């Protein structure tokens, strides 16, 4: 089981990419797959972010367990999920979030070793001025998003600085490319680690798919 987590600031295109993957037959994970209760604490308090991280990992383990019998029946099936954000988001958004980085890193390694669940992070990087322009355009349509500090240039600078410096597994740019091209680049970038062959009929261009068993950069078609 593989989980590809798309990371990046507001306006980087994560939600649009998740939708594109969903339309191509991939199962997706968003906030809806978590059973998070509401409390009086601020959702970005350290306590609530730790609760969110725990819920995220618990939900993933439940999915892995429920898929176990199906994987035994179909051992060739390589299940892939696309997630909007990863637990590492809490490192930035939680108060005192820096305390969580090594904990999350250890949890991911533990789950991979003991439950055969591979978690990959992909930073969707957008040139800063273009990102600011996209955010301003979105605020015209969704002005309520200003409560997330999306109208603050200072907040943007701080957020981009965090994402640029963080150690993500992969980085894929989303500047002037079409969303389908960006999706293809994600597939191409991870094709040495993730087997996309079970999805080749639903992906727009199978030339992006490389079989992990192939050598010398041979492209799977």
Q: Which bin fits the share of residues in helices?
A: 40-55%
Counted up, domains total 1
| Largest sheet data | 5 strands, parallel
User: From the helix content, strand content and strand pairing, which structural class follows?
Assistant: alpha/beta
In whole angstroms, the N-to-C terminal distance is 23 Å
Question: What is the name of the CATH superfamily?
Answer: P-loop containing nucleotide triphosphate hydrolases
Percent of residues in beta strands? 5-15%
Element-by-element helix/strand order: EHEHEHHEHHEH
The overall pLDDT average reads 83
Return residue spans where pLDDT drops below 50 for at least 5 consecutive residues.
206-221
Spatial sequence of strands, sheet with the most strands: 2-3-1-4-5
Shape: globular
CATH class: Alpha Beta
CATH architecture: 3-Layer(aba) Sandwich
**Number of DSSP helical runs:** 7
Give a brief rundown of this model.
This protein is an alpha/beta fold and 221 residues long. The protein has helices spanning 14-23, 46-73, 89-93, 101-115, 128-141, 153-165, 179-190; strands at residues 2-7, 27-29, 80-84, 118-125, 170-173. The protein has one domain: P-loop containing nucleotide triphosphate hydrolases (Rossmann fold), CATH 3.40.50.
């Amino acid at each position: 089981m593989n989980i590809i987590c798309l990371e990046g600031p507001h306006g980087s295109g994560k939600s649009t990419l998740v939708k594109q993957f969903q339309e191509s037959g991939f199962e997706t994970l968003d906030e809806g797959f978590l059973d998070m209760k509401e409390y009086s604490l601020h959702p970005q308090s350290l306590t609530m972010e730790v609760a969110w991280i725990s819920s995220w990992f618990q939900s993933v383990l439940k999915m892995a367990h429920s898929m176990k019998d199906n994987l035994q029946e179909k051992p060739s099936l390589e299940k892939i999920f696309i997630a909007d954000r990863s637990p590492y988001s809490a490192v930035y958004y939680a108060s005192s979030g820096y305390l969580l980085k090594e904990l999350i890193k250890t949890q991911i390694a533990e789950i991979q070793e003991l439950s055969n669940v591979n978690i990959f992070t992909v930073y969707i990087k957008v040139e800063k001025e273009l990102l600011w322009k996209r955010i301003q355009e979105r605020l015209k349509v969704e002005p309520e998003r200003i409560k997330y500090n999306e109208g603050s240039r200072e907040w943007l600078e701080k957020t981009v600085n965090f994402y640029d410096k963080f150690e993500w597994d992969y980085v894929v740019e989303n500047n002037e490319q079409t969303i389908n091209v960006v999706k293809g680049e994600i597939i191409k970038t991870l094709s040495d680690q993730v087997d996309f062959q079970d999805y080749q009929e639903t992906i727009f261009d199978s030339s992006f798919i490389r079989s992990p068993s192939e050598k010398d950069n041979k492209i799977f078609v």
